[in-house]
Write a structure and sequence with these properties.
single chain; about 325 residues; alpha+beta; 2,3-Dihydroxybiphenyl 1,2-Dioxygenase, domain 1; 8-stranded mixed beta sheet; 5 helices; about 15% helix
């Protein structure tokens, strides 16, 4: 396998009310809204990107939020849990913080030596906070809602739920260059490189579970990192040569993307690390204004009249705070 991803790039999910989505991820989880744009394939809805200060690959959870979206069904053929990385001694603080914010949490567990706290967002999306024993060197977004010593560092991992693991495991190892790391009952762990936060995927085998239905409260797709466009293009040809149905390369303005499904049903993406989110607005103003790609600029007036207004806390943009 000549191509190996260095880890997760982003996870994209379906949300409900956009303002509720913003309030939860900015105020409750303490992330930064690094880009306010639209779904390029369906521009009548937002595409909201949450991450660290600059939206570096590996820190991003993004949403297509529809105010009246029906609820999805979590099941096989999906990424069913998105986990964030937090400092080792922060799980207790987070449990108190989430419960004080009206969020129901699960019991603190331990998996592969890591403390894990599970909960759901307002639309039912399954989330987790994971404390890696060796820590996470990534810097958090500095804001007043979550103290820096407890703040989210970025994505930790995703869990894919499948009815059987063999074909999915083959795609992860041969298609993405991940390595098998551990097995715990019906859970199989694969990692990019040496693993750790931002470079881990768990495959959960649940043959008795229903098939998932992608709608509000579920993950739409999981994106993995490619360093540049040349690598991505060559990677695409490699996947095609293996019989994988892959899309053309798509311009997502802040990265380039290709999409394909792993055999278990989850939609995967390979996204480039560049050009990043500061190509069309300054770092201090990320997420503040609606940004559109050039081909949608002629429709700006109509889109701004259609999309619901969003209220952002001033802390999202330090120049305003």
């Amino acid at each position: 396998m000549p191509f190996r991803t260095s880890g997760l790039h982003h996870v994209t999910a379906i949300g409900g009310d956009p303002q509720r989505n913003v309030d939860f991820y900015l105020r409750t989880l303490g992330l930064r809204l690094v880009k306010t744009t639209v779904n390029f394939d369906d521009p009548g809805t937002y595409h909201l990107y949450y991450g660290d200060e600059s939206g570096k690959p590996g820190t991003l959870l993004t949403f297509f939020p529809w105010r009246d979206a029906p609820s999805g069904r979590i099941g096989t053929g999906q990424a069913t849990t998105t986990a964030f990385s937090v400092p080792q001694n922060s799980i207790g603080w987070w449990k108190q913080h989430l419960e004080a914010s009206g969020v129901e949490t699960g019991r603190v567990g331990n998996r592969e030596g890591e403390d894990v706290l599970t909960f759901r967002d307002p639309d039912g999306l399954q989330l987790a906070l994971v404390a890696h024993p060796q820590g996470d060197p990534r810097d958090p977004w500095d804001n007043r809602f979550v103290p820096a010593e407890h703040a989210i560092r970025g994505l930790h991992s995703v869990t894919l739920s499948v009815s059987r693991e063999d074909a999915t495991a083959g795609m992860l190892t041969e298609g993405l260059g991940l390595g098998f790391a551990a097995e715990d009952g019906n859970r199989f762990r694969f990692v990019a490189g040496d693993g750790g936060p931002g470079a881990t995927v768990d495959v959960l085998v649940t043959p008795e579970a229903p098939s998932g239905l992608v709608a509000a409260g579920t993950v739409h797709h999981v994106a993995w990192r490619a360093p540049d466009e040349d690598t991505q293009a060559a990677w695409r040809e490699e996947l095609i040569s293996r019989g994988v149905g892959v899309t053309s390369i798509m311009d997502r303005q802040y990265f380039r993307s290709i999409y394909f499904r792993e055999p278990g049903g989850t939609l995967l993406e390979i996204a480039t690390d560049q050009p990043g989110f500061s190509i069309d607005e300054p770092l201090l103003e990320l997420g503040r204004a609606l940004k559109l790609p050039p081909w949608l600029e002629p429709d700006r007036q109509q889109l701004e009249a259609t999309l619901p207004k969003l209220r952002l806390p001033s802390e999202n943009n330090p120049v305003l705070a």
